[in-house]
Sequence to fold (467 residues):
Amino acid sequence: MIFNSFWRRFLYLLKRMKIRTPVYSISIFFFLLFGLTTIGYSQTGFKLPTGKKKDKIPFELVNNLTVIPLEINGKQLSFLLDTGVNYTLLFSLYDNDSLQIKNVTPVRIRGLGDGGDIDAIKSVNNSVKVGNALDTDHKVYVIFDEKINFSPRMGIPVHGVIGYDFFKDFVVKIDYDSQLITIYDPGTYKAKRCRSCEVFDIALSENKPYVKTKVVSNEQENEAVLLIDSGASDAMWLFNESFGIVEESKNYFDDFLGLGLSGGVHGKRSKMDEVWLGKFKLEDVNVAYPDSLALRNLKKDGDRNGTLGSDILKRFTVTMDYPARKMTLRKNTFFSKPFHYNMAGIIIEHDGMVPVKDISSLSARSVRFNAPDNANTSSVTVNVNPFFTFFLAQRFVVAEVRKDSPAHLAGVAVGDEITAVNGKPFYDMRLSEINALFSSKSGKKIVLEVERNGMKVKKRFTLKEVL
Fold:
């Protein structure tokens, strides 16, 4: 019965996505039913055009994450560039029904979160283009669970994630200041001398990069092996609470940490006194400790102690050289910025579109009529009601509320629709702008206008540091 249900969903998705079913469809059926056979394919990898040694790709920095333009089988999409994944993942399919995916096989995959394994489709022989780099034989894992969708929390469309399959073929420099990625042909790349840089040896385990760091908290120093994860928006995650957590003085608070492929991730948030990356010292660094439920699906990678996320990486110009097993860091303008967390205690997400009356289009019209011959006046003017135009804007709703947070104590609830923030209408704001406001500074006053059950109310609170 379970098999029949999954198979019906699978066939339905093939139809919705206009997937080109392969000639070996009977073999797929037997693979599903008995698990007897798999079909292997070669992958040529990304290549730059002949004679081209490098290419530059602009990106958008959203919630500390790198979003790049990418093309799959001729379809323009937006993907996260993520050193923490070893395969290319595609989701948000129901917004892209015309996308053609080739040569498919159902699989199960596991990711961070509390939801367990998820259904997916492995697709090979796809054409993927990033900038001028092209791979004509690319493997993609397609996730068709509608709940696996990062776009609402990002505020922009995000259709998938690409990692090792891209990094393995180039030397990749990520300039967070200019929001520009430069990729180099590793066969011709020569690193420039840089006295202000720090070069690290990285280990690749199961196609993911790891680096050794030093963390200091409560006068206790620990060496930590961390996954370099540009797809994690936090600064750092640690799996061992003895690296910093103190129960006596309770130097942490419980919080929602984010979304993983297998669902929501909860845990503790705290501060690390120091984090050392070679000669670079970062102070008062945000650190999160995911709970055991979220980590149950995470395969322990050797001596891994946690994750080095993008709130640290963005403070450097980062050059990842997978072929040489090297990472180079150079401080940028973000380096000295303080680490902030969400002091409002609420998570806002994009939830569809709503029509908005365009007040700027308001215009009163008057119509002039000729008066009858026997009237004392030659004409009469009649005022006509004003008219408006409408535009579509993103709808923002409250998705998570942290218990005892300023917003929670002010009465903000899950499902509230945000209509204005500090007097600024929602349609004049981006989601990233609202998130930045919530993480700005302690003592800042916030006035949220929300709509609940058809009624608009104002909720007032002040941002407050917990730690």
Remarks:
- The mean pLDDT is 83.
- The first strand starts at residue 54 and ends at 58.
- Helices lie at 2-17, 25-34, 151-154, 164-167, 292-295, 310-313, 406-409, 431-438.
